[in-house]
């Protein structure tokens, strides 16, 4: 697909714990070309950076677009980023990227400025900018993926929550009991241990359910009690976390998405059911599904880069 005008283009690069998406995006947020590859086959920032540069060039070729039209590149990274240097300080799912300045490597390889932000903020910005109608005052995107993440927009600005943290957000603690499981971030009871993709797949394996998230979905559809219990547990824990966040941040819109819901719609169904009373209890808050799906991070990173360079 090619863009029929000479308008500037941007790349959105969404680095996830499982896969990385590289998309060519126009100023309106349309994805003109998309490349995807597994992230977990790499263990070196240098090799990974080279693969991203290759995908950028291939995506341009697929869209029949000149690289000269690419005005900016947005790079979304999973974890905590030093805003002054672009260094990835902490990444629970991709520890081999910690301490690297991947943005600098990609910028050098492509000869373009690269703007870095977290993957949660990129997805949030992509969803926020894709909404029709007036912009809400307080918007949150809540994302189920390899990990659980959220981003927050207040007064039309991406707003950090707990900026000095080293692990997952305290707002995402789902279990504060002595039985709470340890999370890879170093804390106990994070929602990641219950409702992330890896946690759901592990719970399914323990229950004798194979096939990953798709297998869990199929078994749930057949009415299997173990599958329904796994999904319901994740939905109830997520609903409790959402309830607390909505009250603390006084949110007006909560947008829910992520790759887990793409492969396990049962969780989205149970989550909507378990949050049915949430909106009424918390005031006038709108709960809405993702509008960009797995491409939210790509679109958000590109649009963020547009805003920083134009």
Stated plainly, the CATH topology of the largest domain is called: Nucleotidyltransferase, domain 5
Order of helices and strands: EEEHEEEHEHEEEHHHHEHHHEH
Contiguous helical run count: 11
CATH fourth-tier homologous superfamily of the largest domain:
ATPase, nucleotide binding domain
The radius of gyration computed from the alpha-carbon positions, rounded to a whole number of angstroms, is: 19 Å
Strand content: 15-25%
Main β sheet profile: 5 strands, mixed
Structural class estimated from helices and strands: alpha/beta
Helix content: 25-40%
Specify the CATH architecture of the largest domain: 2-Layer Sandwich
N- to C-terminal distance: 24 Å
What is the CATH C-level name of the largest domain? Alpha Beta
Give a verbal description of the structure.
With 310 residues, the chain is of the alpha/beta class. The chain has two domains: 9-123 and 295-309, 2-Layer Sandwich (Nucleotidyltransferase, domain 5); 134-290, Nucleotidyltransferase, domain 5 (2-Layer Sandwich). The chain has eleven helices and twelve strands. A five-stranded mixed beta sheet has the order 3-2-1-4-7. A five-stranded mixed beta sheet has the order 10-9-8-11-12. A two-stranded antiparallel ribbon has the order 5-6. The longest helix has 25 residues, at 225-249. The mean pLDDT is 88.
